[in-house]
Every structure is written in structure tokens, then in C-alpha cells.
Amino acid sequence: TAAIQNFNFDHILLNAAGVMCQTKEELDTVLASNYTGAVVTKSATPALREGNPTPRYYEMAQNLGTINSMGLPNAGFDYYMDYVSQKQTNKPIFFSIAGLSKQDNLDMLRQLEASDFEGLIELNLSCPNVPGKPQTAYDFEATEAILTEAFAFFTKPLGVKLPPYFDIVHFDMIAAVLNKFPLAFVNTINSIGNGLVVDPQTDTVVIKPKAGFGGLGGTIVKATALANVRALRDRLRDDIKIIGTGGVTTGRDVYDHVLCGADLVEVGSQLAVEGIGVFERLENELADILTAKGYTSLDQVRGQLKTIA
Ligand SMILES: O=C1NC(=O)NC(C(=O)O)N1
């Protein structure tokens, strides 16, 4: 549809893959909100997955953030294909996939290409929580290889979910790879992989998988998220849209993501913590900021972050 072609959504907020999107009921809840512009599915693997042993998710005190090692629990590719095939909605759906191998990903992409699905596809190259599996997008050659093979046959709107980078040279390198392909969007960031959180009552890690190592989200990842949005906006072709994810708990955080160049903004940890009402609160807080600044459109804000001369 036109909305998808020019990435023009009624609302810029949606969930982050993994949060409130594993079941049809959760997906319907996000879609039904008057304050979301789209929904993204839990990253699907070919077969249903139980994921990692629990406890595998923890919310830190003072809403500092979250740590998770879910391990890609999901109902399986066919479940989400069934959902999108039957869903009557004019709100765009992002179908997220996270194969455990290049072949898995190519197989799911071939099925999506052959289907009547008219939404967007997010290739998650950044899950940090499958023991023994790397975050693919930290391997620039592997990333180029999967995208080369994918774009040999895939014609629907495709984007990638990236891990955070922490080295300017890595921003340059991943952008050089991504700029070779007709990507519809880039979604940055996924959780900051392999953090470690201690329970102060018990001197114990707070999640069971991987001896407590898990992906960080929420307040504590905001500065890294903004840096990755800004760095990729500065480096990627203008036609590649940016979805900003990470550290969004207030309307100001949404504003900051747009200031750094985000076209859409995803909410993960704060959606898990607060529930579906977070979207209305964020949109109202954002509107108040725009009004206070005399802006009538986010287009006046997007990418306008100033530097110090
Ligand atoms: O890509 C992912 N990012 C996360 O932080 N967690 C999930 C997961 O573990 O399934 N996947």
C-alpha cells in the first residue's frame, strides 16, 4: 500500500519485536490501540520454540531497564503466516524472522515472497540470546552474504534489525554493507547483548540462561540507541528508513529518537513494564513537547539534532 511504500504511518509508535507480539491476542492488542501505527511480530523461527529456561527476564529497580535471555520463544513461522494471512487491518504489519542459520532465513523469506502477505519483513540479525549462536550483524561478511542471497529473489519491503555498534569504524562498515542493498528500513537497536545484572539480596544473577548473561533494554540503553540511530541516519541512503528502538520511556525519548533521524519509534521494555497504555502516554507527552516548541509536525524535528560549532 502507499503507506508502506513511502513509510507513511498515521502514528509513529509501535512495539519492539519480542514484546506483546508472541500470540494472536497480543498482536491484536497492539493493532487495536489508537496510538500505534503498526505492529511487529515476535521474531519467528521455522519451528515453534520454547526458548531458554526461566527465569529469563528481569526488570531492574527504579525502572533503570531490563535484562532478558528469552532465546527466541515463538509459535513458529506458520503461526505468524496464518495470523497475517487472516488479519483484516489497514495498519501495516512487520513480520519479524530470526532463523538459526542462513538457510532458515532464506527459506522463510522464500515463503514470504511467495505468499500474499502485503506488509513489511524484518530480518532480525541481532538476537544475542541463543547459546552458541553469534549476533550475525557483528559479522559484516555474513551480513553481506545473507542480504546478497535474499535480494536475489526477494521483492517485498525488507529491513534488518541490528545490534548496537560501539565503534565509529563499525558504523562505517555496516553502513557500507547495507548501502549496497535496496533495503526498505533499518531498525536499530536490538538489546545490548550479554549484560550481567546482580540481585542485591542474594548476590546471584537474575536470569538463569548463560550464567546470567542477557540482553539489556530500557532506560540504560537510551544513549547507545540514539547514537546508533544518528550514526546510521548520517551514513545510510536517504531512501532507507530508520526505525529507532531502545530506551524509550517518555515522550522526550521519542522526540530524541526523531531528532536523531528516526522515522518510526519502537517501545520494548517500557511496553512490557507499563502495558498497552504506554502508547497513549508517549504520544500525549510528545504532543506536549511539540506544542511547547511551536512545532506542528515531526517533519520539523526529524534529523535536526544540532552539534556544537
Ligand atoms: O532479538 C532478540 N533480542 C532480545 O533481546 N531477546 C530476544 C530473545 O531472546 O528471543 N531476541
Order of helices and strands: HEHEEEHEHEHEHEEEEEHEHEHH
Q: What's the Cα radius of gyration?
A: 18 Å
* Average pLDDT score: 97
How far apart, in Å, are the first and last alpha carbons?
42 Å
- What percentage of the residues does DSSP assign to strands (E)? 15-25%
Could you give a quick summary of the protein structure above?
The chain is of the alpha/beta class and 309 residues long. The chain has helices spanning 2-5, 24-32, 77-86, 102-114, 140-151, 168-178, 222-235, 251-259, 269-274, 278-293, and strands spanning 13-15, 39-40, 57-59, 66-68, 93-97, 120-124, 158-162, 185-188, 192-196, 198-199, 204-205, 213-217, 241-245, 264-267.
Describe the structure.
With 309 residues, the chain is of the alpha/beta class. The chain contains ten helices and 14 strands. The chain has helices spanning 2-5, 24-32, 77-86, 102-114, 140-151, 168-178, 222-235, 251-259, 269-274, 278-293, and strands spanning 13-15, 39-40, 57-59, 66-68, 93-97, 120-124, 158-162, 185-188, 192-196, 198-199, 204-205, 213-217, 241-245, 264-267. The strands form three sheets. The chain has an eight-stranded parallel β-sheet with strand order 1-14-13-8-7-6-5-2. A four-stranded antiparallel β-sheet has the order 3-4-12-9, with no helix packed on it. A two-stranded antiparallel sheet has the order 10-11. β5, α4 and β6 form a beta-alpha-beta unit. α5 packs parallel to α6 (168-178), α6 (168-178) packs across α7 (222-235) and α7 (222-235) packs parallel to α8. The chain is globular, with a radius of gyration of 18 Å. The protein starts with a helix and ends in a 16-residue tail after the last helix. 47% of the residues are buried. The mean pLDDT is 97. The structure holds oxonic acid. The site of oxonic acid (OXC) has 14 residues, from loops.
